[in-house]
Amino acid sequence: MPITHSDLFARIIDFDNLWSAYLATRKGKRYRREVAEFSVNLEENLINIHNHLVWGSWEPGRPRSFTVFEPKRRDIQAPPFADRIVHHALVRVVEPLFERRFIYHSYACRTGKGAQRAVWALQRMLRTAHRNWQTPYVVKADIKSYFASIRHDVLFTAIERVVSCKDTLDLWKRITAGYGHDGVGLPVGALTSQLAANVMLDQLDHAMTDGAGVGRYVRYMDDFIIVAPDKAAAWRALNAAADTVAGLGLALNPKTKIIPAKCGVDFCGYRTWATHILPRKRNMRKARRMFRRMVRQYAAGQIPLQYVQQRVASFLAYTKHCSADRSVRSILGDAVFIKGE
């Protein structure tokens, strides 16, 4: 007896969508071992995924777990390559349904957005605030242990306001619960988690911009900034945000603070004022240590020139968007790479 699915789920499991999801998942990783092994029998493997999705028997595989320490410690659960194809297939179809609901000034994990654009948006808000208000203040806040604290019931209450397809919801729930999380927490290394994280805090975005009437608000994942006309207004906005966050089963980071806008705002890797943008001091100290270490490694033959060139290009890409000429000359001027014997 043939199985019938809703139009939404049928689009997710469509073979052409799985093929496109495979290409997106493979991008930049085609020479990695697990990618090469999957690609040897590509059509057979994609058909296998398709059949499991059709019959509702697909289950997440065992993730690869590791810890990163930059910019802060995070425990990562990287799903297997085949699983990531399923994640891409789901997100490709459902993301547009949520994208049209997101506010303009939500910048993480969205096409045409990103950290740099978030910083530019913040600077424009600061410039307008200084023109219109005598002593503007800034709320700088983030969510405590965000990914690890997201409750699945609260998340899917938000998702189900947009997606009603049972098969699609079942698949998404299976992914969410499939990497060692039992009712709370999302796997940091999963594409679906990025979309889910935005869906979760979209509720905060609308509560602040629509409900609390905050006109100058910008968010990058779980970090958000509110620019207020004075200190009292900043406290009212912060209290409203804290109440909304608590209603989502989350909590603000204790380091959340209110500061005068004239002091500059540390956000998305930069320190931003209405008049200029500077690199974060700790990022520049870290870069100096990195280049000193690389000088020793290159002299000892432990790293190739290509590795050095990539790190220099990355550093210049970071600093070109801010006032950092003297620091860049100082850091790179001290980094003389000479091949040892």
Automatic annotation (TrEMBL):
CDD domains: RT_G2_intron
Keywords per UniProt: Nucleotidyltransferase, RNA-directed DNA polymerase, Transferase
Coiled coil: none
GO molecular function: RNA-directed DNA polymerase activity
InterPro entries found in the cross-reference section: DNA/RNA_pol_sf (IPR043502), GrpII_Intron_Splice-Mob/Def (IPR051083), RT_dom (IPR000477)
SUPFAM superfamilies (UniProt xref): DNA/RNA polymerases
Superkingdom of this protein's organism: Bacteria
Sequence ranges assigned to domain Reverse transcriptase in this UniProt record: 1-272
Any Pfam family the entry gives: RVT_1
Family the UniProt entry places it in: Belongs to the bacterial reverse transcriptase family.
Record-given protein name: Putative RNA-directed DNA polymerase (Reverse transcriptase)
Source organism of the structure: Alkalidesulfovibrio alkalitolerans DSM 16529
Organismal lineage: Bacteria, Pseudomonadati, Thermodesulfobacteriota, Desulfovibrionia, Desulfovibrionales
